[in-house]
Amino acid sequence: MVKYKTREEVELIKEGAQILGKAHGEVAKMISPGVKTIELDIRAEEFIRDHGGVPSFKNFNGFPASLCISLNENVVHGFPGEYELREGDIISVDCGVYYKGFHSDSAYTYPVGQVSDEVEQLLKVTKESLYKGIEKALYGNRIGDLAYAIQDYVEDFGYGIVRELVGHGLGRDLHESPEVPNYGKRGKGPLLKEGLVIAIEPMINLGSRNVVQEADGWTIRTADRKPSAHFEHTVAIFREGTEVLTTHKYIEENFKF
Ligand code: MG
Ligand code: MG
To answer: 158 CA distance to ligand 2 centroid (A)?
Structure first.
């Protein structure tokens, strides 16, 4: 069952999303060769708690950290740890904040120092595909319209779209209905109605779309071990227009590529 939100509830999600955006900004300042991924997690958790939020992912179904940190061939749900970032890596940082009863969720993938041209393009196109999806996430459209927009955009580049993992509704729970795939058919799927809040999150592979789960029971990586990128925003659908509730502003102020 889809739980539609009131304007007041969406305002609370937006407040939490500001904390989330700024936590991402703190992480962005730290992305450089030699940094341990656990240091990013510690900083994000500290920032979120200092601002009255709770990291949504920590202890979610037993997940051990505040950030999902997925490097290179890892798609999503990786753990932070002792690994030190190296020049040429890409790192996906996914984070959620629980604040005043509601969750917000967003992700960004960074290059560490100089990456190859083909990897830089993967990051750029994946980020652009998120906005292609948001453009079609309009009141009266269907999930398939935004899903198709993402698919249509990235497949022109020959990339693989992960199908096993999708975006989602969210609110009082981190994962609510409906599912929001990154591939689909125009005019199909659930209607986008007033008060629907969804996380749109393309997960795009440089190579094939196939993924496998690592033995840790969480980390999802590409089957061919080619890199994968992930960008995410939480958005709210209203008749007057769609609002992007999360922000990458604080990332982009602190990190240029
Ligand atoms: Mg996320
Ligand atoms: Mg999500």
So the answer is: 24
